[in-house]
């Protein structure tokens, strides 16, 4: 089955570049150059993923995103935001916007395609909903809250994103490099030791007196979250 991707981008050259590369990967691509056009297309067609630019003429990408999230049929539609550096990125990162992922301009096409594939994989696995659950741990993206059993778990923003990455890849080993990429993006002031420090903090917050440790360190490979006895997620 071909995945239908809607690209909402007013810069014609960038829109064509995105179309060319997405089509080369076998996606069926529709272009929209403003928010209003995007909303009309979404109302009449089925899309598997939306690539949405933040800065658009008329209705902004941010507003389009908000409207999609308040509308039942499009609440969990996979959405990748294109942002410029700075304030926009901080706001997308703050998770208040409702985008499932974002790419900062200028981006490499290779990175964007990797994000698109990852987002479609997460969507296929049912990992884009508002609530992620692994055993007795529940992460509610809407409320931005984490509970273990009946206990509320308080996490800093980095530990929250780390847990989110773990829960999306439950049962699979994530290397420190993959975690750096998923949680810290290309921040220059972090290294693999940073990952260990934050995993330590996350563990501490998740483990109460009688809880088990849901994160296992795999020597030489990274970490695995909520591993099943047979190793299958
Ligand atoms: Ca733009």
State the gist of this model.
By secondary structure, this protein is α/β, with parallel strands linked by helices. It is built from 8 helices and 12 strands. Helix 6 crosses helix 7 (176-184) and helix 6 crosses helix 8 (192-206).
Walk me through what this model shows:
The chain has 233 residues and is an alpha/beta fold. 39% of the residues lie in helices and 21% in strands. The chain is built from 8 helices and 12 strands. The chain has helices spanning 12-24, 35-44, 61-69, 87-93, 109-124, 157-168, 176-184, 192-206, and strands spanning 4-8, 28-32, 49-53, 79-83, 101-104, 131-134, 137-140, 145-148, 151-153, 173-174, 215-218, 222-225. Helix 6 packs across helix 7 (176-184) and helix 6 packs across helix 8. It is globular and about 55 Å long.
Question: How are the secondary structure elements laid out?
Answer:
Layout: E1 4-8, H1 12-24, E2 28-32, H2 35-44, E3 49-53, H3 61-69, E4 79-83, H4 87-93, E5 101-104, H5 109-124, E6 131-134, E7 137-140, E8 145-148, E9 151-153, H6 157-168, E10 173-174, H7 176-184, H8 192-206, E11 215-218, E12 222-225
Helix pairs in contact: 6-7, 6-8
Bound molecules: calcium ion.
Feature tags:
233 residues, alpha/beta, four-stranded antiparallel beta sheet, 21% strand, disordered C terminus, binds calcium ion
């Amino acid at each position: 089955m071909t995945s239908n991707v809607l690209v909402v981008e007013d810069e014609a050259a960038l829109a064509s570049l995105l179309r060319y590369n997405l089509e080369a990967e076998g996606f069926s691509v529709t272009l929209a150059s403003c928010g209003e056009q995007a909303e009309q297309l979404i109302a009449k067609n089925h899309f598997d993923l939306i690539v949405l630019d933040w800065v658009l003429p008329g209705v902004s990408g941010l507003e389009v995103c908000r409207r999609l999230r308040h509308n039942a049929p499009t609440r969990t539609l996979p959405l990748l935001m294109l942002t410029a550096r700075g304030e926009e990125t901080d706001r997308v990162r703050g998770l208040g916007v409702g985008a499932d992922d974002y790419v900062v301009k200028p981006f490499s096409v290779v990175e964007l395609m990797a994000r698109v594939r990852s987002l479609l994989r997460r969507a296929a696995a049912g990992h884009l909903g508002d609530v992620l659950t692994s055993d007795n741990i529940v992460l509610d993206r809407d409320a931005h809250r984490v509970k273990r059993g009946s206990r509320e778990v308080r996490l800093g923003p980095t530990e929250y994103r780390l847990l989110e990455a773990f829960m999306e890849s439950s049962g699979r080993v994530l290397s420190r490099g993959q975690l750096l990429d998923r949680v810290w993006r290309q921040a220059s002031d972090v290294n693999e030791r940073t990952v260990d420090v934050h995993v330590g903090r996350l563990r501490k917050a998740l483990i109460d007196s009688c809880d088990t440790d849901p994160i296992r360190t795999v020597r030489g490979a990274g970490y695995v979250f909520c591993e099943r006895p047979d190793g299958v997620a």
